[in-house]
Amino acid sequence: MLERFFSNGKVIDIGANLTHKSFDHDIDAVIQRSLDVGIEKIIVTASSIQDTKKAIELTDQYPNVLWATAGVHPHNAKTAEKQTEIMLKQLLAHQKIVAVGEIGLDYCRNFSEPKEQKKVFEIQLGVAAEKSLPVFLHQRDSHHDFVGILKDYKSSLAGGVAHCFTEKVKELKDYLDLGLYIGITGWLCDPRRNHNLIDSIKYIPIDRLLIETDSPYLLPKALEKELKTRRNEPCFLPHIAQAIAEYKKIDLAEVLSNTIQNSEKLFFRQKQ
């Protein structure tokens, strides 16, 4: 199952939550399994200031493989300190930080009040614009406010990705009009929930497509029984890439070559 899948060894998982406690006991093995299937780079997604610090520590441990985002997830907006903007700017100075994120709005669970979320979102968009870094974006049940805020910053941002896209064609069009890339996860592999995404993926331009695992979440459903676990890992990225190829009716090689190029263009152009 984990035979080398990506022959050129340059594939990038643009979003993996490797700071999650489920990886604490075997992170070395997780990284090795990713390398074994041909993944070259993994971007560790951060969700708070403390999480960003842990992500940076991981990039220092695995400097040839891991990169990271820095930011405060909308769930954590209520705990953001007055010094968050200053601390974020300091963290962004680290050479392995490639984006501001995971930032955005989430009205589904409202762990933080919408007013708090919007304030922290705008602060971080301003920092991203100032630092000329792309944004790694989260949106759930907040599309109208999310798009409205992004429109105000569109001209000043250095690009971004709508992480873990699951929505309908109308929402997709709004994101594409904002110039965003579209991140596809194992959600596409879940027959109970992927109906909107199956319709939408046909309309995602190949030059705006990115792939991510969102580990340890969203393990491709076909693997759950086989593995007897629900923990996702970057090494399972091949299953997402294959599903994209099937639903878009294009060759796997086309998916891989374009997502590599797109990832490099959005996140690593400044690191060359």
Protein described:
This protein is an alpha/beta fold. The chain has a single domain (11-271), classed as Metal-dependent hydrolases (TIM Barrel). 41% of the residues lie in helices and 16% in strands. The chain has helices spanning 27-36, 49-61, 84-91, 114-131, 143-153, 169-177, 195-201, 221-227, 237-248, 252-268, and strands at residues 11-16, 39-44, 66-70, 97-106, 135-140, 160-162, 181-184, 209-211. An eight-stranded parallel β-sheet has the order 1-2-3-4-5-6-7-8, sandwiched between helices. The two termini are 33 Å apart. The mean pLDDT is 94.
Please tell me the overall pLDDT: 94
Give me the CATH superfamily.
Metal-dependent hydrolases
- What kind of assembly state do the chains in view correspond to? single chain
Helicity range = 40-55%
CATH topology: TIM Barrel
Number of strands: 8
Q: Tell me, what is the CATH class?
A: Alpha Beta
Write the layout of secondary structure elements.
Blueprint: E1 11-16, H1 27-36, E2 39-44, H2 49-61, E3 66-70, H3 84-91, E4 97-106, H4 114-131, E5 135-140, H5 143-153, E6 160-162, H6 169-177, E7 181-184, H7 195-201, E8 209-211, H8 221-227, H9 237-248, H10 252-268
Parallel strand pairs: 1-2, 2-3, 3-4, 4-5, 5-6, 6-7, 7-8
Top keywords for this entry?
single chain, 272 residues, TIM Barrel, 8-stranded parallel beta sheet
Describe, in short, the structure shown.
With 272 residues, the protein is α/β, with parallel strands linked by helices.
